[in-house]
Amino acid sequence: MIVIYGIRHRLDPIKARLSAVIHGCMMDVFGLPEDKRAQRFMPMDAEDFFAPGGRSDAYTVIEINMMAGRTTETQKALIKRLFADIEAELGIAPVDVEIILKEQPPHCWGFRGMTGDEVRDLTYRVDR
C-alpha cells in the first residue's frame, strides 16, 4: 500500500502520471506485476500540509508500506529510482520529494482472508 500526500492544487493535476511513475518503479525494482497497484492519494489543503524549510508547494510525501524482506540495496535502489523518475517525468526536484519505506513482518499483513505469512501464491518476491 502506497500513500501519497501533497498540496491539493499541485497533486490533483498529476495524480495519474505520478501513479504511473511510482508503479513503474515498483515493477522494475521490486518486480511487482502490473495489476499490483495499491495507491491512495491524499491531496491536502495548503493550510493542513506543512513542509520543511526550503521546499516548494510541489513538496510531496510518498509512504510505501511493504512486507519485510527486501535487501537494503533493493530498498535504496527503489528510493533513488523514484527520485530520478519523478524529476524526469514530472519535473519535481528531489528536494521536494520525501520517500518513507515502512516495513512490517508478513504476519502483520492481512489480505484475501489470510495473513501475509500464510500466502503461498504471490507472483513476486519480497526477499530480494
UniProtKB/TrEMBL annotation:
Pfam families to which the protein is assigned, alphabetical: Tautomerase_2
SUPFAM superfamilies assigned: Tautomerase/MIF (SSF55331)
Entry-linked InterPro entries: Tauto_MSAD, Tautomerase/MIF_sf
Record protein name field: Tautomerase family protein
Lineage: Bacteria, Pseudomonadati, Pseudomonadota, Gammaproteobacteria, Oceanospirillales
